[in-house]
Amino acid sequence: MDKNNEIIVFGGGCFWCMEAVFKMIKGVISVEPGYAGGNKDNPNYQDVSLGLTGHAEVIKIEYKAQIISFENILTVFFATHDPTTKNRQGNDIGTQYRSIILYTSEEQKKQAEKFIITINNSNEKGAPVVTEIKTLDIFYTAENYHKNYYENNKSQPYCQVVINPKLKKVQEKFANLLKNNE
């Protein structure tokens, strides 16, 4: 990793969706699916999926802060999942699908907390954000077949029904933040 780059880890449902979204964002160097936030060493997909580890499906994002701000990264994160449902994203239910930010610096923590306060204050009638914020202790890389899942499986029903609409939304809402618009 370049010393000028930053790392943030997000969980917001299925890591296949999140990986596909953040790979489109300019300033993002890499996106890696994995597991974090739990209490079992060296978890695997089967154990995480069954909710036996305390880990969430997450993505580790390496990005250039001089190209994309952490605030913009947070904006995309919160706009591409429902941070107001505890342990659930759509049909994915369980702690492994919770909304979580695992920060790598105190500045990220402060910005994330402030961002959530702003969201909660912007709509008094809306449900409050339940996103967990905690320091990244350890990140476990997911099995190889999860990496670049969308790119390698675009014709799969899950990609067609769940990921494609999400990517279209990102392309429409965040055109100014996309790599192809740099």
Automatic annotation (TrEMBL):
A molecular function GO annotation: L-methionine:thioredoxin-disulfide S-oxidoreductase activity
EC number per UniProt: 1.8.4.11
Enzyme class: oxidoreductase
UniProt cross-references to InterPro entries, sorted A to Z: Met_Sox_Rdtase_MsrA_dom, Met_Sox_Rdtase_MsrA_sf
Catalytic center residues: 14
Domain Peptide methionine sulphoxide reductase MsrA: from-to ranges: 8-160
Top-level taxonomic group: Bacteria
Catalytic reaction list: [thioredoxin]-disulfide + L-methionine + H2O = L-methionine (S)-S-oxide + [thioredoxin]-dithiol; L-methionyl-[protein] + [thioredoxin]-disulfide + H2O = L-methionyl-(S)-S-oxide-[protein] + [thioredoxin]-dithiol
SUPFAM superfamilies in alphabetical order: Peptide methionine sulfoxide reductase
PANTHER family given in the database record: PEPTIDE METHIONINE SULFOXIDE REDUCTASE, PEPTIDE METHIONINE SULFOXIDE REDUCTASE MSRA 2
Function field: Has an important function as a repair enzyme for proteins that have been inactivated by oxidation. Catalyzes the reversible oxidation-reduction of methionine sulfoxide in proteins to methionine.
Family of the protein in this entry: Belongs to the MsrA Met sulfoxide reductase family.
Protein name: Peptide methionine sulfoxide reductase MsrA
Species: Candidatus Staskawiczbacteria bacterium RIFCSPHIGHO2_02_FULL_33_16
